Amino acid sequence: MTKAVELLKKRVVKNKIINYPKHLHNKKDSGAVGKFVEDYFIDSPHGNNTEDIKGLELKTKDIESGNDISIAGYNNPVEMFERTYNKIKKRIGYIQYKIRKDKIHIVSFKIYEKCTLINFKIFVRSIKNKSKIKYRIYAKDLPNMYEKELIII
Fold it and tell me: Which of 40, 49, 32 has its CA nearest to residue 15?
């Protein structure tokens, strides 16, 4: 594992409860809390379709909000399949959380390693709307999609 992944693991384990100020609550943006969690744990968050940190793509999900995870979205479809595979093939870190009052509680953190191209083709779905193509996976499929599962929390 890269040094960046090791640092992320330590940071998540050390910070299982995060303050979430009320002024940041946004009922209209279902991904706002997840973005907040990613920004909290990753020093240099970005909007590119590349790994969040060297060797790992981080995904977050409210434990009460379902099973569907967005892994990429494209307005420009150039090499989107390859770019998405390259983004997640080494590792996905998956944090599940719950919100209680003004706190985010990390419920679980797992790292999935080594996704083959065959498994990527089997488990990743592409969804096309008017202006964007999105790639999504079901959280329940992560253990089948990757060769190794590491339970951190």
Answer: 40
Tens digit of each residue's pLDDT (9 = 90 or more) over 109-146: 999 999 999 999 999 999 998 889 999 999 999 999 99
Domain CATH number, residue 104: 3.40.210
pTM to 2 decimal places: 0.91
Dihedral (Cα; 111, 40, 76, 83), 10-degree rounding:
-30
Number of domains comprising the chain:
1
Between CA 32 and CA 44 the distance in angstroms is: 17
Residue 130's pLDDT is: 83
Q: In which domain, by residue range, is 134 found? A: 3-151
Residue 106 CB burial class (10 angstroms; 0-12, 13-18, ≥19): buried
